[in-house]
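Every protein is a chain of amino acids, and every chain bends into a shape of its own. The protein below has been through that process, and both of its lines are reproduced in full.
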Amino acid sequence: MDWGPIILTLKLATVTTILLILIAIPLANWLANTKTKFKPALEALISMPLVLPPTVLGFYLLIAFSPNNAFGEWLDQWLGLRLIFSFEGLVFASIIYSLPFMVHPIQSGLTNLPNSLKEASYVLGKSKFQTLTKVLLPNIKPAILTGIVLSFAHTMGEFGVVLMIGGNIPGQTKVASIAIYDEVESLNYGLANQYSLILLGITFLILLMVYSLNRKGIKAFWK
């Protein structure tokens, strides 16, 4: 069995999850505190990947990043960045596709914290950044952990988006879900079963970890 698609899948999920943490924490904090009238529209936009068919999202990303279009041509000529059929493109698409799985748990955790925590921090002279990193985030560790694990697991299971924007290039864009599809198309069910069992085992362990750590043992885990 070629382990390349499995390794590439884990690499994609790891890179995407790390970048999502950096993006989602400030975004979720802003959403938890803003009173702008555009908040419902922004939340709906972030949540769209939850209900939108992945192929639709992948199609529009494919069109947007194509060198034949203005934006794709600008990326190619000015930044030397070609996102179509590349690992970088898979990462970008995965960030968009998995964004709600990271933002919503963190936003919910921040929203449910009592205002007295922030007020006490401000009274003690802490800045907004210090309040967020040293007071608020430590109090929503279960929510952050849930976002990390769900984003990682969701990225591992992507198919439609990665197929549309990445194609099927061995060693570059051929992730495990694409490899399974290839083997089934070739009627090689045995190898497809091996890939599927590995993904099944990994995702089961990830979800088991989420449910276990969000129970009573979460406090002991973070001490």
DSSP finds twelve helices and no strands in the chain.
